Amino acid sequence: MSRPAILETTAVGAAYAAGLAVGFWKDVGELSAKWQLDKQWTPAMAPEARAVLASRWKKAVHKSMGWVGGGSGKEENGEKGESGKSAFAALPAWLPPFVTGAAIVALLLRR
Fold it and tell me: Pairing state of beta strands 2-4 and 37-40?
């Protein structure tokens, strides 16, 4: 886990996206150079234990989907819909529940 020097990732992500849209920055590479590391943590949990906990987290998320009305209820409940795939299946297993869209943008900018 890496923590950026600038913690306001939502505001920075919005500013970066706006700057890219109007040509203030030429490309994502220019923004990537601006990213600075503040602190980094390394996982200490055994891969097997992590897999069990991730599986339980996915199960809990699946159970929480669709509890508010609307739609057929299939994909919202994590069940397979018309496409044959769960809407939740597209998310990476490591994605923690607290990750925001801005943090995802920050991760993409680091590539």
Answer: antiparallel
Asked if 66 contacts 73 with a C-beta cutoff of 8 angstroms, the reply is: yes
Using CA atoms, how far apart are residues 42 and 94, in angstroms rounded to an integer? 14
pTM of the full structure: 0.41
Distance CA 31, CA 109 (A): 7
Token pair listed for 1: 């886990």
- Residue with structure tokens 């920075």? 12
CA 15 to chain centre: 19
Please say whether the beta carbons of 53 and 96 come within 8 A: no
The tens-digit pLDDT sequence of the chain (111 residues) is 899 999 888 888 889 899 999 999 899 899 888 889 999 999 899 999 999 999 999 998 888 887 766 545 454 444 454 555 555 555 565 555 545 566 666 666 665
